[in-house]
Amino acid sequence: MPDNSVTLTLGEKIKNIRLEKRITLEEVARHTKLTPSFISQIERNLASPSVQSLHKIAIALGSKISNFFEENDSKGLVLLKKNYKQNIPVKFQAYTIRLINDISSINLHPFVIILDNSPNAEKELPSHSEDEFGIVIKGKILLSINKVTYTMEEGDCIYLTSPGKHKITNIGNKKVEVLWIYGSNF
Q: N or C terminus of the chain with fewer C-beta within 10 Å?
């Protein structure tokens, strides 16, 4: 299946963040001590900024440099299929799988959702304004978020920001286990 996603360049990502936050080139220039012309050239990919300039721009935009390099531009949602996780060697015959960047900064409430193998067994999750993370441990589910659905299989994980109304439905023929983690204020 072809990948129809659009990959944004560094300059486009910087410009998108700036426009999203309604910050002018002049305001960024004033905070960074860079010229508006240079920042415009960066946004149009006509100039390559130094790491120091990127750091200044990130601070002026209230962002992190890492946001300029993230592959997923979906706001508030990161879905990682099991084949796209990064294995990080730790010791001989041991490894860690990085699921979501910066997850250690979130205060968490983990639990396991278990759905039996009856067709369309489901669990409705409460609406709230906290971040969530989920990983399918066993089985195959349909995750519905505000009438949009995502099919997830063993090993797939998802990160959500303020998801609203959502539910998990067993769409396979075996018991489902999903590790689900809410943010701290839930």
A: N
* Strand 176-183 to 108-115 pairing: antiparallel
**Cα 141 from Cα 122, distance rounded (Å):** 9
Can you say how many angstroms the Cα of residue 174 is from the centroid of all Cα atoms in its chain?
28
Strands in 39-186 per DSSP E:
77-80, 86-91, 94-98, 108-115, 122-125, 132-138, 140-145, 148-153, 157-160, 166-170, 176-183
Output DSSP code: residue 8.
P
Q: Report the Cα 105 to chain-centroid distance in Å.
A: 14
Q: Is residue 81 very low, low, confident or very high in pLDDT (cuts 50, 70, 90)?
A: low
Alpha-carbon distance 25 to 65, whole Å?
Answer: 18
Angle, CA 94 vertex, CA 88 and CA 95 arms, to 5°: 20
| Domain 77-183 in CATH 2.60.120.10 | yes
For residue 106 the two structure tokens come to: 């979130």
Distance from C-alpha of 157 to C-alpha of 76, rounded to nearest angstrom: 14
Taking CA 86 as the corner, what is the angle to CA 93 and CA 3, rounded to the nearest 5 degrees? 140
What CATH number is given for 10-68 in this structure? 1.10.260.40
